[in-house]
Write a structure and sequence with these properties.
Layout lengths: L11 E2 L2 E4 L3 H12 L4 E4 L16 E5 H9 L3 H4 L4 E3 L1 E6 L5 E5 L9 E5 H12 L5 E4 L4 E6 L4 E5 L4 E4 L1 E4 L6 H5 L4 E17 L6 E7 L2 E8 L3 E9 L3 H6 L2 H12 L6 E17 L3 E2 L2 E3 L5 E2 L7 H21 L7 H29 L4 H16 L1 H11 L16
Parallel strand pairs: 1-12, 2-3, 2-13, 3-9, 6-15, 13-20
Antiparallel strand pairs: 4-8, 5-8, 6-7, 10-11, 11-12, 14-17, 14-18, 15-16, 16-17, 18-21, 19-20
Helix pairs in contact: 1-4, 1-8, 8-9
Length: 412
């Protein structure tokens, strides 16, 4: 755990207070601390709890640009032994003969990205926190009162401790109390779909190929992990999920095999299964007086393209750059003009990705014959037009748009 100041009657002070020390909040804390910004992180979860294998069965697709962020912050070296490169991506539509195939050699890249279990990211964060004297982790703890004055932010924790900072960052996820306390409205809707997540072992090697199969109920993703293992993200209609989750191991494996196929030989489910309701939501704004939102607190999307964490890490790279540059210029990190630059930089990109994932899910999660024909012909056309295909591959690697320094492989 990071150097935690002892409980006392005195107020704890820092430049920035981050509410939420998960994948986005924790990574942002490391970036700010590297840049000389003093940070206090308040998280409701005890540090050791998030490192348990049973805590979260999810794995994340880390795009090439996001890998550069984690590498630049000194986190990647700790995760790398547990990662698996995504060297090819194959997108197919049910039983259709049409498909879309991406190969890293076509763009001269080391990989499109990497698969890493979320637990490995948390482990790397916990270790990296110990390296900073200007980063304080208060956990488990909860903010029970928050006041944003003209000159600072004042928070009271559930154990009575008080924190003062010049800016608060809400990074607690979709149900962000910081966002709600600020009265920032959200737009959201349910897809009436649930993501079933599990890990499988298979007889044959996956050869670092990621598969995205579009079935009537939603996408079924087979994503390579280290060894002969793959992470499954199985999108199913809400009404079918309770029955599937209630099946015994043998019956569940039978349902899974029907969608997975036998191309990797004998298949087994290892570890627990998880189910997560799928929805889209976005905040009407990402900034307020001495407050900024990052990650799912600002935008939450369908996992269809595996971009949720990547968009959060892009928030991290931009916000760290903006706040560190402000510090170098002697500016107040909570200044409205500083925060507005983050809002401008991220708003269009986040809105575009939300719209894209929403449209893809609606396009492929149905079995209407004319729509099915149109999407199959579209995939075939993209597959046969190399310049257009390269544009899609650049997006898959997170290299499109105006990139912050970390995503260009440069120092903060």
């Amino acid at each position: 755990m990071a150097k935690t100041k002892p409980v006392s009657d005195k107020e704890l002070q820092a430049d920035v207070l981050i509410a939420g020390g998960g994948l986005v909040g924790g990574t942002l804390a490391c970036g700010l601390a590297m840049g000389g910004v003093s940070v206090i992180v308040v998280d409701t979860l005890a540090p050791a709890d998030g490192l348990e294998a049973a805590f979260d069965g999810r794995a994340s697709a880390i795009a090439l640009s996001s890998k550069r962020v984690l590498d630049g912050l000194g986190l990647w070296s700790e995760m790398q032994p547990d990662t698996a490169a995504i060297k090819e991506i194959r997108v197919s539509d049910g039983e259709s003969l049409f498909f879309l195939h991406y190969d890293r050699h076509d763009v001269g890249a080391e990989a499109f990205g990497y698969m890493v279990e979320n637990r490995s990211i948390r482990t790397a964060l916990a270790g990296r926190f110990r390296d900073f004297d200007n980063l304080t982790l208060l956990a488990p703890a909860r903010i029970v009162a928050l006041e944003r004055t003209p000159g600072d932010v004042r928070a009271t924790l559930d154990d009575g401790r008080k924190v003062r900072a010049r800016l608060i960052i809400g990074a607690e996820g979709r149900r962000s109390p910081t966002r709600e306390q600020a009265g920032i409205k959200i737009t959201n809707w349910s897809y009436k779909q649930t993501g079933i997540v599990c890990t499988v072992t298979h007889e044959k090697p996956h050869d670092n190929v990621a598969h995205e199969r579009f079935l009537v109920a939603g996408p079924f993703a087979i994503l390579p992990l280290s060894g002969n293992r793959s992470s499954i993200v199985w999108t199913e209609r809400d009404e079918k999920v309770p029955g599937l989750m209630a099946l015994d191991d043998e019956a569940f494996l039978g349902e899974l095999r029907g969608r997975f196929g036998d191309f990797l030989g004998k298949l087994d489910v290892t570890g627990p299964r998880w189910a997560y309701p799928l929805s889209l939501q976005y905040a009407e704004r990402a900034v307020d007086h001495r407050l900024v939102l990052a990650g799912d607190a600002s935008h939450g999307m369908h996992p269809i393209a595996g971009q949720g964490l990547n968009m959060g890490l892009r928030d991290v790279a931009v916000l760290a750059e903006v706040l560190i540059d402000a510090r170098r210029l002697g500016l107040d990190p909570g200044d409205g003009a500083v925060l507005a630059s983050y809002e401008r930089w991220r708003r269009f990109d986040n809105t575009l990705m939300l719209a894209m994932t929403d449209a893809l899910n609606r396009l492929f999660s149905n079995d209407i014959a004319p729509v099915r024909l149109a999407r199959d012909l579209g995939m075939a056309a993209v597959n046969r037009v190399p310049p257009l295909k390269k544009v899609f591959m650049q997006h898959a690697m997170g290299l499109a748009g105006e990139l912050p320094r970390l995503m260009r492989g440069e120092e903060l």
